[in-house]
Amino acid sequence: MVSIWVGERVRLRAREPTDWEAFQAFDEHSDAVRNAWRIEPPMSAARMKKRMAEEAEQDADLDEFSLVIAAKDGNAPVGSLLTHGADRVHGVFLYGIAIGTPHHRMGYATEALLLLLRYMFYERRFQKAEARVYSSNDASLALHRRLGFVEEGRRRRCHYAGGRFDDEVLFGMTIEEFTERHA
Fold first, then answer.
1. Of 7, 70, 87, 173, most Cβ neighbours within 10 A?
2. What are phi and psi of 111, to 5 degrees?
3. Are 98 and 32 in contact (CB under 8 A)?
4. Among 17, 113, 108, which Cα is nearest to 70's?
């Protein structure tokens, strides 16, 4: 049997203290960081090592967690994803994904999301996934549309970065939509 956390290109795994260098390097690409959340002041190597060690020590939660997206060959980090806002009553969760700039357009995000959605829908019994994407993030907008997410709404001018305001686009996908497209 093969692990549900492993695809053809990627492996979803827990953070390790040794991942600090890869994530510090990813933070050097300001445009990518802006698309994922916000730019913060540079972090020292000591602080980044401590942060990664602390995150590696955290207890895992079945519904809200953060994982490293690692290249299957070599296990090196290429990005990360997290789940949050898990609502067990209504069966809805949100997630975020970020791929380091050197690893863009290699299929890592697509495969990582499909692995995550299979877990959340078929193992955790959620019925809907939601994602929020900034309107200037053309690559992520295209990814979500290509995967079959439905644009459900828009929060206007709610994100400021790089001297401009962006809308936040809300995407959703139900388990039935996922199963029809990706089973």
1. 70
2. -65, -40
3. yes
4. 108
Q: Which residue has 């979500």 as its token pair?
A: 144
**Is 147 strand, coil or helix?**
helix
Going by C-beta distance under 8 Å and a sequence separation of 6 or more, which residues neighbour residue 148? Answer: 173, 177, 178, 181, 182
pTM for this structure?
0.92
Retrieve residue 167's tokens. 């809308």
* 3-class DSSP state of 9: coil
Q: What are the boundaries of each domain within the chain?
A: 10-182
Q: So what's the architecture of 10-182 in CATH? A: 3-Layer(aba) Sandwich (3.40)
- At CA 85, angle to CA 81 and CA 88, rounded to 5? 115
Alpha carbons 129 and 122: distance in angstroms, whole number: 12
